[in-house]
Amino acid sequence: MAIDVVKIEIKSVSDASGLEELINSGRMGADDILAAIGKTEGNGGVNDFTRILSDQAYRAVLVKYGSRSEEQIKEIPMVWSGGCDGVITPHATVFARSSAGGASGQSRLTMGTAMSEVILPEDIGRPAMIETVAASVRLAMQDAGISDVKDVHYVQTKTPLLTIETIQQAHSRGQGVACEVHDSMGVSNGTTGLGIALALGEVEMPP
C-alpha cells in the first residue's frame, strides 16, 4: 500500500476548502486520509486558538465526505503549529493511503499512526511520559509494518502543555508538576524526544 502526500493552502483560520477540493478531485478519498500536519497563521503561543479552528474545519470535512464516525475522526492524528511569520504561507500537509503500486522489493514511503494513553499533567517532563511516548512510537511502527528501527526516518508527535486548570487537577490528586506553565512547551517537547529515542533504541531508560 502506497502513501500519497499533498500540501494544501489554508486561506483563513477556518478554511478547509482545499481539502474539499482535493477529495472532490478523486485523488484521495476522505476515508483514506491517515493524518495531517498544518501551520496556521496564529501567534504560536499556548493561547493560539487558530490551531483549534483549523483542526475543527478539517475534521468536519472528513465527517462530511467520508463514512467514518465522528469518534473515529477524532482519533485521526492532526498536528497544528501556529505562527506564520515572514514568508511562511499557512498550509496543511495531508497523508493518505493509496492503491497505487510500486516496484516490488524496493524501499518506499510508508507511515503508521498511533494515539497514546492519556498523559497526565503530573507526567509531563517525567519518566512516565517518556515510556508512554515510546509505547506509542512502537505501535505506530507496527501500524506501518516497520520492524527495523533503522527504517524509521521521521516521527511527528503532538504533545500536551500545562495550563492553570490542569495544574489544579494534578494538585487535586495530590500530585505536583515538573515545571511552570510557560516552560511546559519546551519540557514537553524534550520529554517526547526522549520517548522517541527510547523507542528507536537510541537511549536507554536510567535504572
Structural class: alpha+beta
Total domains, how many? Answer: 2
Mean pLDDT: 93
Instruction: Count the E strands.
Output: 4
Tell me the overall shape: globular
CATH superfamily of the largest domain: Cyanuric acid hydrolase/Barbiturase, RU A
Strand content: 5-15%
Return the CATH architecture of the largest domain: 2-Layer Sandwich
Give the low-confidence spans. none
Total DSSP helices: 6
Roughly how many Å apart are the termini? Answer: 40 Å
Please state how the strands of the largest beta sheet are arranged side by side.
1-4-2-3
Secondary-structure element order, N to C: EHEHHEEHHH
Provide the CATH top-level class of the largest domain: Alpha Beta
Helix amount, in percent? 25-40%
Q: Largest sheet at a glance?
A: 4 strands, mixed
CATH topology-level fold name of the largest domain: 60s Ribosomal Protein L30, Chain: A
Gyration radius, rounded: 18 Å
Organism: marine metagenome
InterPro entries: AtzD/Barbiturase, AtzD/Barbiturase_RUA, AtzD/Barbiturase_RUB
Protein name: Ring-opening amidohydrolase
GO molecular function: hydrolase activity, acting on carbon-nitrogen (but not peptide) bonds, in cyclic amides
